[in-house]
Amino acid sequence: MSTMRYPEMMIAPYREAVTRLGAQELRTPDQVDSFLEQHRDGALVVINSICGCAGGTMRPALEVLHDENSLPDAFGVVFAGADIEATDRVRELHAPVPPSSPAMVYFRDGKVAFIMERKDIQGRAVAEVASALKAGIASAGG
Q1: Which of 17, 32, 51, 133 is catalytic?
Q2: Is 86 in the active site?
Q3: 3-state secondary structure the chain
């Protein structure tokens, strides 16, 4: 586990790009567990990141779904490289899928019902990722 954290002033705009869409920040493992326990009927947890595919595709895809009013009410976010322990907790919960950032994970009853890893985001059009996430959540009962 890496303990080097990105400086908060460097990542603040990337955090805000997701929280302004209604995501609840989950900065500790306890916050992740509590959030998922409170939203057992379905919750989207995003692993935000500083990388280009997060900024160029994932966050804009989330914005598309926000504008369509298609994001789940239970919507949380951790930031890889900053919320290290919280991110590790989400990754533990989505095992055996390998760690990925960015990633979007839809949980039902505390288990992964749908996941989009970096490989499902990188190199794809914003509309394609938004559509895939919306369909994945719907197929998972969200």
Answers
A1: 51
A2: no
A3: CCCCCCCHHHHHHHHHHHHCCCCEECCCHHHHHHHHHHCCCCEEEEEECCCHHHHHHHHHHHHHHHHCCCCCCCEEEEECCCCHHHHHHHHHHCCCCCCCCCEEEEEECCEEEEEECHHHHCCCCHHHHHHHHHHHHHHCCC
